[in-house]
Amino acid sequence: GVLDSLDSSSKISNGFPKWESHTPGTLTPAGPPDATVPSRFLACVSREETARKLENIFGSLGQLGSSVEVFASKNIEAVQNSDVVLLCCKPQIVHTILSEPGMKEALEGKLLISILAGVTMSQITNWVLPSTRVVRAMPNTPCKIREGMTVVSNLPPSVHSETDRAVILKIFSSIGRCRFLEEKHFDACTALSGSGPAFACIFMEAMADGGVMMGLPRAEALELAAQTLQGAARMVLQGNTHPAQLKDSVTTPGGCTIAGLLALEDGRVRSTIARGIQIATERASELGQPAKK
Ligand SMILES: NC(=O)C1=CN([C@@H]2O[C@H](COP(=O)(O)OP(=O)(O)OC[C@H]3O[C@@H](n4cnc5c(N)ncnc54)[C@H](OP(=O)(O)O)[C@@H]3O)[C@@H](O)[C@H]2O)C=CC1
Ligand SMILES: O=C(O)[C@@H]1CCC=N1
């Protein structure tokens, strides 16, 4: 089911929020119609060429794909015909898009969800009319296979209805996990889960390289590395197990795991990774902001 109990007030034990088991759903309604499940999707791009590409992709998706209409350079028309608008352009051009003549009016009274890194709610709120309900979300690329992690900014009850919350959860928990957090954490979330797949892939590639160095064929080395990372991650998420516990349970006294762990620690692996998140967070905070002189 959806993770609607996972707001910032969820209980923490042993450093872990209490996770509910979560099977990502789909946006295709089963049973009676549900007002919180979008039934029509309008995808906006700027170029005809991209529009054709998207049409081919959606065309190959069968029933779900056929509910998507692609618009090239027709943002106003698409927004006029929508209840919920997902803003997914590059941070540098958001102001241009929101300043298109007629855009403010087209967005009046609507839910506007921005996935832009670094662009704050207050910036977006300043570019739209007061009746537009602005929300920030930070998804990541595993959303493509419904294994995403999306963080959504907390919804103040004075602005958002239960329907907004339900719509947001339907959208993002259909493509992975979804959690609400305060906006002040967004740059860190952008670095950790938004950029995180890239960091995880570097680690995965390095593990595979180590296997190749020791004579494993490349393809098998990569399979072993990827499935091992997936398995460890699932043990953490499904078992509410702390990574340190998992690590200790693999580590036989005097065995090979501790030998490998010490070599990694000599390379300052943990502080290097943690600093990577710190630097990416700092960079995220600069995106969508005026360039410093
Ligand atoms: N990549 C990631 O993992 C994540 C990215 N984000 C955020 O998502 C956003 C998009 O990033 P990314 O997907 O990499 O960027 P892309 O360049 O791949 O996508 C941007 C899209 O915006 C369209 N576009 C550009 N100008 C306009 C316009 N004037 N009107 C309508 N559509 C337009 C482009 O269409 P066309 O190709 O036709 O020009 C393109 O389809 C960024 O703000 C980023 O911060 C957030 C979370 C994760
Ligand atoms: O690198 C970026 O700016 C975007 C935001 C999060 C992931 N990619």
Gist of the model:
The chain is an alpha/beta fold and 293 residues long. It has 13 helices and nine strands.
Give the end-to-end Cα distance, rounded to a whole number of Å. 48 Å
The CATH H-level homologous superfamily of the largest domain: NAD(P)-binding Rossmann-like Domain
List the ions, cofactors and other small molecules found in this model.
NADPH dihydro-nicotinamide-adenine-dinucleotide phosphate, (2S)-3,4-dihydro-2H-pyrrole-2-carboxylic acid
Helix content: 40-55%
Q: Assess the beta-strand content as a share of residues.
A: 5-15%
What is the string of SSEs from the N terminus onward? EEEHHEHEHHEHEEHEHHHHHH
Q: Low-confidence stretches at least 5 residues in length (pLDDT < 50)?
A: 1-14
Number of helices: 13
Using only C-alpha atoms, the radius of gyration works out to 22 Å
CATH architecture of the largest domain: 3-Layer(aba) Sandwich
Q: What name does the CATH topology of the largest domain carry?
A: Rossmann fold
Main beta sheet, described? 5 strands, mixed
- SS-based structural class? alpha/beta
InterPro entries: 6-PGluconate_DH-like_C_sf (IPR008927), NAD(P)-bd_dom_sf (IPR036291), P5C_Rdtase_cat_N (IPR028939), P5CR-like_CS (IPR053790), P5CR_dimer (IPR029036), Pyrroline-COOH_reductase (IPR000304)
Protein name: Pyrroline-5-carboxylate reductase
Pfam family, one: F420_oxidored
GO molecular function, one term: pyrroline-5-carboxylate reductase activity
Explain what this protein looks like in three dimensions.
The protein has 293 residues and is of the alpha/beta class. It has 2 domains: 12-182, 3-Layer(aba) Sandwich (Rossmann fold), CATH 3.40.50; 196-284, Orthogonal Bundle (ProC C-terminal domain-like fold), CATH 1.10.3730.10. It contains 13 helices and 9 strands. The strands form 3 sheets. A 5-stranded mixed β-sheet has the order 5-6-7-8-9, sandwiched between helices. A two-stranded antiparallel ribbon has the order 1-2. Strands 3-4 form a two-stranded parallel ribbon. Helix 6 links the parallel strand 6 and strand 7 (133-138). The longest helix has 22 residues, at 218-239. The N and C termini lie far apart (48 Å). Residues 1-14 have low confidence and may be disordered.
